[in-house]
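Q: How would the C-alpha coordinates look for this protein?
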Amino acid sequence: MSKKDVNRHKFFLTGGEWENKDDYFFSVDTPLQHDSAASLIESPIPGINHLSSVIFVSSSNNGIILMVFPYDLINLWNPAIRELIKIPSSIPKMKKSDRKRFLAIYGLGYVSSIDDYKIVRVGEKDNSNGHFETDLFSMRDNSWKLIGKFPSYNFFREGDIVSIDGIIYMIVMTDLSENVNESTILSFCLEKEQFEEVLFPDRILRFQNPILHVLEDNLCLTRMHDLASRDFEVWHMKKDGSMSTTWSKILTIPSMYYGRCLRRMKLMKINEYIIFLRYKGDFKVYNTNGERSKIVEVPEIDSLFYYINWIVPYVESLFSPKQRHIRHFKKMDVSISEKKRNVILKE
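A: Here is the predicted structure in C-alpha coordinate form.
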Protein backbone atom coordinates (compact mmCIF):
# COMPACT_ATOMS: atom_id res chain seq x y z
CA MET A 1 0.00 0.00 0.00
CA SER A 2 1.43 3.39 -0.98
CA LYS A 3 1.94 6.31 1.33
CA LYS A 4 -0.76 8.14 -0.56
CA ASP A 5 -3.26 5.42 0.29
CA VAL A 6 -2.23 5.32 3.95
CA ASN A 7 -2.83 9.06 4.24
CA ARG A 8 -6.43 8.49 3.28
CA HIS A 9 -7.16 6.20 6.23
CA LYS A 10 -8.67 8.03 9.18
CA PHE A 11 -10.80 7.62 12.28
CA PHE A 12 -13.91 9.76 12.85
CA LEU A 13 -14.66 10.48 16.52
CA THR A 14 -17.58 12.06 18.35
CA GLY A 15 -17.45 12.98 22.01
CA GLY A 16 -17.54 15.80 24.49
CA GLU A 17 -16.72 17.29 27.83
CA TRP A 18 -18.30 16.58 31.20
CA GLU A 19 -19.81 20.05 31.70
CA ASN A 20 -20.63 20.63 28.04
CA LYS A 21 -23.18 18.22 26.58
CA ASP A 22 -22.45 19.19 22.98
CA ASP A 23 -20.82 16.63 20.71
CA TYR A 24 -17.55 17.53 19.01
CA PHE A 25 -16.37 15.91 15.79
CA PHE A 26 -12.74 15.02 15.13
CA SER A 27 -10.85 13.40 12.27
CA VAL A 28 -7.75 11.49 13.40
CA ASP A 29 -4.90 10.45 11.11
CA THR A 30 -3.62 6.90 11.47
CA PRO A 31 0.01 6.46 12.56
CA LEU A 32 2.97 4.57 11.00
CA GLN A 33 3.89 6.52 7.87
CA HIS A 34 3.02 10.01 9.09
CA ASP A 35 2.37 11.85 12.34
CA SER A 36 -0.98 11.16 13.96
CA ALA A 37 -2.99 14.29 14.69
CA ALA A 38 -6.60 15.11 15.51
CA SER A 39 -8.42 17.83 13.53
CA LEU A 40 -11.61 19.45 14.77
CA ILE A 41 -14.41 19.25 12.18
CA GLU A 42 -17.19 21.80 12.11
CA SER A 43 -20.65 20.32 12.67
CA PRO A 44 -22.40 19.55 9.35
CA ILE A 45 -25.68 20.91 10.73
CA PRO A 46 -25.39 24.32 12.43
CA GLY A 47 -26.85 24.24 15.93
CA ILE A 48 -27.53 20.50 15.94
CA ASN A 49 -25.12 19.91 18.81
CA HIS A 50 -27.20 22.19 20.98
CA LEU A 51 -30.25 20.03 20.32
CA SER A 52 -28.80 16.68 21.31
CA SER A 53 -25.86 14.33 20.87
CA VAL A 54 -25.37 11.99 17.95
CA ILE A 55 -27.12 8.69 18.71
CA PHE A 56 -25.68 6.55 15.92
CA VAL A 57 -22.69 6.67 13.57
CA SER A 58 -21.71 4.18 10.89
CA SER A 59 -19.60 4.30 7.74
CA SER A 60 -19.33 2.84 4.28
CA ASN A 61 -16.81 3.00 1.47
CA ASN A 62 -16.19 6.16 -0.56
CA GLY A 63 -15.70 8.22 2.60
CA ILE A 64 -19.39 8.57 3.46
CA ILE A 65 -20.46 8.61 7.11
CA LEU A 66 -23.99 7.87 8.28
CA MET A 67 -24.98 10.07 11.23
CA VAL A 68 -28.28 9.81 13.09
CA PHE A 69 -29.56 12.33 15.62
CA PRO A 70 -32.54 11.89 17.98
CA TYR A 71 -36.01 11.62 16.50
CA ASP A 72 -34.72 9.74 13.46
CA LEU A 73 -32.85 12.67 11.89
CA ILE A 74 -30.69 10.78 9.35
CA ASN A 75 -27.80 12.32 7.42
CA LEU A 76 -25.13 11.14 4.99
CA TRP A 77 -21.96 13.20 5.28
CA ASN A 78 -18.53 13.35 3.69
CA PRO A 79 -16.37 15.19 6.25
CA ALA A 80 -13.48 15.57 3.80
CA ILE A 81 -15.43 17.78 1.38
CA ARG A 82 -18.09 18.88 3.89
CA GLU A 83 -21.07 17.80 1.85
CA LEU A 84 -24.23 16.48 3.46
CA ILE A 85 -27.60 15.13 2.41
CA LYS A 86 -30.59 14.66 4.69
CA ILE A 87 -32.50 11.38 4.43
CA PRO A 88 -36.26 11.37 5.01
CA SER A 89 -37.34 9.56 8.15
CA SER A 90 -39.05 6.17 8.08
CA ILE A 91 -41.24 7.35 10.97
CA PRO A 92 -44.35 9.42 10.11
CA LYS A 93 -44.00 13.10 10.89
CA MET A 94 -45.43 14.24 14.22
CA LYS A 95 -45.91 17.50 16.02
CA LYS A 96 -42.84 18.45 17.99
CA SER A 97 -44.72 17.95 21.26
CA ASP A 98 -45.73 14.40 20.21
CA ARG A 99 -42.34 13.19 19.00
CA LYS A 100 -40.82 10.15 20.69
CA ARG A 101 -37.37 8.59 20.78
CA PHE A 102 -37.23 5.04 19.51
CA LEU A 103 -34.48 2.47 20.03
CA ALA A 104 -32.96 1.65 16.62
CA ILE A 105 -29.77 0.78 14.76
CA TYR A 106 -28.84 1.78 11.22
CA GLY A 107 -26.56 0.40 8.52
CA LEU A 108 -25.32 1.91 5.26
CA GLY A 109 -24.13 -0.14 2.30
CA TYR A 110 -23.66 -0.11 -1.46
CA VAL A 111 -25.29 -2.66 -3.79
CA SER A 112 -23.07 -2.80 -6.86
CA SER A 113 -25.45 -4.93 -8.97
CA ILE A 114 -28.01 -2.11 -9.05
CA ASP A 115 -25.66 0.83 -8.37
CA ASP A 116 -27.57 1.94 -5.28
CA TYR A 117 -26.79 2.99 -1.75
CA LYS A 118 -29.20 1.60 0.84
CA ILE A 119 -29.84 2.29 4.51
CA VAL A 120 -31.36 -0.34 6.77
CA ARG A 121 -33.12 0.63 10.00
CA VAL A 122 -33.93 -1.96 12.68
CA GLY A 123 -35.88 -0.71 15.65
CA GLU A 124 -39.07 0.46 17.23
CA LYS A 125 -41.72 2.68 15.72
CA ASP A 126 -44.88 4.22 17.10
CA ASN A 127 -47.07 1.44 15.71
CA SER A 128 -44.68 -1.51 16.17
CA ASN A 129 -46.38 -2.76 19.37
CA GLY A 130 -43.14 -3.40 21.23
CA HIS A 131 -41.34 -5.45 18.56
CA PHE A 132 -38.59 -4.32 16.20
CA GLU A 133 -39.28 -3.69 12.52
CA THR A 134 -36.87 -3.64 9.57
CA ASP A 135 -37.11 -0.80 7.05
CA LEU A 136 -34.96 -0.22 3.96
CA PHE A 137 -34.21 3.09 2.24
CA SER A 138 -33.05 3.30 -1.39
CA MET A 139 -31.00 6.32 -2.45
CA ARG A 140 -31.91 5.65 -6.07
CA ASP A 141 -35.65 5.60 -5.38
CA ASN A 142 -35.47 8.10 -2.51
CA SER A 143 -38.00 6.08 -0.51
CA TRP A 144 -38.41 3.66 2.40
CA LYS A 145 -40.13 0.30 2.37
CA LEU A 146 -41.06 -2.02 5.21
CA ILE A 147 -39.24 -5.37 5.08
CA GLY A 148 -40.98 -6.91 8.08
CA LYS A 149 -40.40 -7.85 11.68
CA PHE A 150 -36.88 -8.29 12.99
CA PRO A 151 -35.98 -12.00 13.52
CA SER A 152 -36.85 -13.50 16.86
CA TYR A 153 -33.93 -12.04 18.77
CA ASN A 154 -34.91 -9.75 21.57
CA PHE A 155 -31.98 -7.42 21.97
CA PHE A 156 -29.30 -5.88 19.78
CA ARG A 157 -26.21 -3.94 20.72
CA GLU A 158 -26.34 -0.39 19.51
CA GLY A 159 -22.79 0.03 18.25
CA ASP A 160 -22.12 -3.39 16.80
CA ILE A 161 -22.96 -2.95 13.13
CA VAL A 162 -20.67 -2.89 10.07
CA SER A 163 -21.11 -3.02 6.29
CA ILE A 164 -19.14 -5.08 3.75
CA ASP A 165 -19.99 -5.60 0.05
CA GLY A 166 -23.68 -4.82 0.41
CA ILE A 167 -24.14 -6.90 3.57
CA ILE A 168 -24.85 -5.43 7.01
CA TYR A 169 -23.54 -7.35 10.03
CA MET A 170 -24.68 -6.93 13.63
CA ILE A 171 -24.40 -8.65 17.01
CA VAL A 172 -27.68 -9.68 18.60
CA MET A 173 -28.54 -11.34 21.89
CA THR A 174 -31.36 -13.52 23.11
CA ASP A 175 -33.89 -12.52 25.75
CA LEU A 176 -32.06 -11.08 28.74
CA SER A 177 -34.72 -12.39 31.11
CA GLU A 178 -33.73 -15.96 30.24
CA ASN A 179 -30.15 -15.35 31.44
CA VAL A 180 -28.76 -16.81 28.25
CA ASN A 181 -25.18 -15.66 28.10
CA GLU A 182 -24.61 -15.94 24.34
CA SER A 183 -24.51 -13.56 21.40
CA THR A 184 -25.03 -14.22 17.69
CA ILE A 185 -23.76 -12.53 14.53
CA LEU A 186 -26.58 -11.72 12.14
CA SER A 187 -26.23 -10.51 8.53
CA PHE A 188 -28.69 -8.62 6.35
CA CYS A 189 -28.19 -8.70 2.57
CA LEU A 190 -29.22 -5.35 1.09
CA GLU A 191 -29.81 -6.90 -2.36
CA LYS A 192 -31.79 -9.99 -1.31
CA GLU A 193 -33.34 -8.17 1.68
CA GLN A 194 -32.87 -11.22 3.89
CA PHE A 195 -31.40 -11.97 7.32
CA GLU A 196 -29.03 -14.89 7.93
CA GLU A 197 -27.13 -16.13 10.95
CA VAL A 198 -23.33 -16.09 10.63
CA LEU A 199 -21.77 -19.14 12.26
CA PHE A 200 -18.76 -18.66 14.55
CA PRO A 201 -16.30 -21.44 15.58
CA ASP A 202 -17.38 -21.37 19.22
CA ARG A 203 -19.75 -19.65 21.60
CA ILE A 204 -19.69 -15.85 21.78
CA LEU A 205 -20.35 -14.93 25.39
CA ARG A 206 -21.59 -11.58 26.62
CA PHE A 207 -18.83 -11.02 29.15
CA GLN A 208 -16.31 -11.27 26.28
CA ASN A 209 -17.59 -7.92 25.01
CA PRO A 210 -17.58 -8.91 21.31
CA ILE A 211 -17.21 -6.07 18.80
CA LEU A 212 -17.46 -6.19 15.00
CA HIS A 213 -14.97 -4.47 12.69
CA VAL A 214 -14.00 -4.46 9.00
CA LEU A 215 -10.48 -5.69 8.30
CA GLU A 216 -9.22 -5.77 4.70
CA ASP A 217 -12.81 -5.88 3.38
CA ASN A 218 -13.60 -8.87 5.59
CA LEU A 219 -15.60 -9.23 8.77
CA CYS A 220 -13.58 -9.14 11.96
CA LEU A 221 -14.56 -9.84 15.57
CA THR A 222 -12.65 -8.81 18.68
CA ARG A 223 -13.36 -10.16 22.14
CA MET A 224 -11.84 -10.79 25.55
CA HIS A 225 -10.96 -14.47 25.83
CA ASP A 226 -11.79 -15.02 29.51
CA LEU A 227 -12.07 -13.09 32.75
CA ALA A 228 -9.04 -14.78 34.31
CA SER A 229 -6.35 -14.04 31.72
CA ARG A 230 -8.13 -11.15 30.00
CA ASP A 231 -6.33 -11.98 26.79
CA PHE A 232 -7.71 -10.09 23.81
CA GLU A 233 -8.47 -11.98 20.57
CA VAL A 234 -8.85 -10.80 16.98
CA TRP A 235 -10.80 -13.13 14.65
CA HIS A 236 -10.95 -12.75 10.86
CA MET A 237 -13.63 -14.17 8.52
CA LYS A 238 -12.99 -14.93 4.85
CA LYS A 239 -15.22 -16.28 2.09
CA ASP A 240 -14.08 -18.71 -0.59
CA GLY A 241 -15.36 -19.06 -4.15
CA SER A 242 -18.39 -21.05 -3.02
CA MET A 243 -19.20 -18.28 -0.49
CA SER A 244 -18.43 -20.59 2.43
CA THR A 245 -16.99 -18.74 5.40
CA THR A 246 -13.83 -19.56 7.33
CA TRP A 247 -12.89 -17.96 10.64
CA SER A 248 -9.29 -17.78 11.86
CA LYS A 249 -7.78 -16.23 14.97
CA ILE A 250 -5.07 -13.90 13.68
CA LEU A 251 -3.99 -12.20 16.89
CA THR A 252 -3.96 -12.74 20.66
CA ILE A 253 -2.83 -9.85 22.84
CA PRO A 254 -2.19 -10.30 26.58
CA SER A 255 -4.14 -8.17 29.07
CA MET A 256 -5.84 -5.85 26.60
CA TYR A 257 -8.78 -5.18 28.90
CA TYR A 258 -8.98 -1.77 30.58
CA GLY A 259 -12.49 -1.34 31.90
CA ARG A 260 -14.77 0.20 29.34
CA CYS A 261 -12.11 0.80 26.70
CA LEU A 262 -13.12 -2.23 24.64
CA ARG A 263 -16.52 -0.68 24.03
CA ARG A 264 -14.85 2.35 22.47
CA MET A 265 -12.10 0.93 20.35
CA LYS A 266 -11.72 0.38 16.63
CA LEU A 267 -9.05 -1.23 14.52
CA MET A 268 -7.72 -1.25 10.99
CA LYS A 269 -4.89 -3.03 9.20
CA ILE A 270 -2.18 -1.27 7.21
CA ASN A 271 0.46 -3.47 5.57
CA GLU A 272 1.34 -6.09 8.20
CA TYR A 273 0.30 -3.99 11.19
CA ILE A 274 -2.99 -3.90 13.07
CA ILE A 275 -3.81 -0.52 14.60
CA PHE A 276 -6.10 -0.10 17.61
CA LEU A 277 -7.46 3.31 18.58
CA ARG A 278 -8.64 3.25 22.20
CA TYR A 279 -11.07 5.59 23.96
CA LYS A 280 -8.24 7.14 25.99
CA GLY A 281 -6.86 8.68 22.83
CA ASP A 282 -3.85 6.58 21.93
CA PHE A 283 -3.02 4.10 19.20
CA LYS A 284 -1.62 0.67 19.93
CA VAL A 285 0.19 -0.83 16.93
CA TYR A 286 0.83 -4.59 16.70
CA ASN A 287 2.32 -6.78 14.03
CA THR A 288 0.41 -9.89 13.02
CA ASN A 289 2.53 -12.00 15.39
CA GLY A 290 1.04 -10.17 18.36
CA GLU A 291 4.19 -8.19 19.13
CA ARG A 292 3.49 -4.60 20.08
CA SER A 293 5.37 -2.25 17.79
CA LYS A 294 4.60 1.09 19.40
CA ILE A 295 2.12 3.26 21.29
CA VAL A 296 1.21 6.55 19.61
CA GLU A 297 -0.51 9.12 21.78
CA VAL A 298 -2.84 11.76 20.34
CA PRO A 299 -2.76 14.55 22.96
CA GLU A 300 -5.69 16.46 21.47
CA ILE A 301 -8.08 13.58 22.16
CA ASP A 302 -7.02 13.02 25.75
CA SER A 303 -7.14 16.73 26.59
CA LEU A 304 -10.39 17.65 24.81
CA PHE A 305 -12.58 14.58 25.32
CA TYR A 306 -13.96 13.54 28.68
CA TYR A 307 -15.89 10.82 26.88
CA ILE A 308 -15.98 9.36 23.37
CA ASN A 309 -19.30 8.17 21.97
CA TRP A 310 -18.27 6.85 18.57
CA ILE A 311 -15.10 5.80 16.77
CA VAL A 312 -15.55 5.00 13.07
CA PRO A 313 -12.76 4.16 10.58
CA TYR A 314 -13.19 5.72 7.15
CA VAL A 315 -11.26 6.51 3.98
CA GLU A 316 -11.10 10.04 2.62
CA SER A 317 -12.58 10.60 -0.84
CA LEU A 318 -14.13 13.25 -3.06
CA PHE A 319 -17.37 11.32 -3.44
CA SER A 320 -20.44 13.46 -2.80
CA PRO A 321 -23.34 11.94 -0.81
CA LYS A 322 -25.64 13.89 -3.13
CA GLN A 323 -24.46 11.75 -6.04
CA ARG A 324 -26.90 8.84 -6.25
CA HIS A 325 -25.03 6.81 -8.87
CA ILE A 326 -21.34 6.06 -8.45
CA ARG A 327 -20.29 3.68 -11.24
CA HIS A 328 -18.73 6.40 -13.37
CA PHE A 329 -17.28 8.00 -10.26
CA LYS A 330 -15.39 4.81 -9.36
CA LYS A 331 -13.33 5.18 -12.53
CA MET A 332 -11.92 8.45 -11.16
CA ASP A 333 -9.14 8.89 -8.59
CA VAL A 334 -11.15 9.40 -5.40
CA SER A 335 -8.15 10.13 -3.19
CA ILE A 336 -7.59 13.65 -1.92
CA SER A 337 -4.22 15.20 -2.64
CA GLU A 338 -2.39 16.99 0.15
CA LYS A 339 -2.89 20.31 -1.64
CA LYS A 340 -6.64 19.76 -1.99
CA ARG A 341 -6.92 18.64 1.66
CA ASN A 342 -5.18 21.80 2.87
CA VAL A 343 -7.52 23.99 0.83
CA ILE A 344 -10.56 22.27 2.36
CA LEU A 345 -9.26 22.62 5.92
CA LYS A 346 -8.57 26.33 5.44
CA GLU A 347 -12.05 27.13 4.14
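The two ends are 30 Å apart (CA to CA).

The first helix runs from residue 3 to 7.

Upvote if useful.
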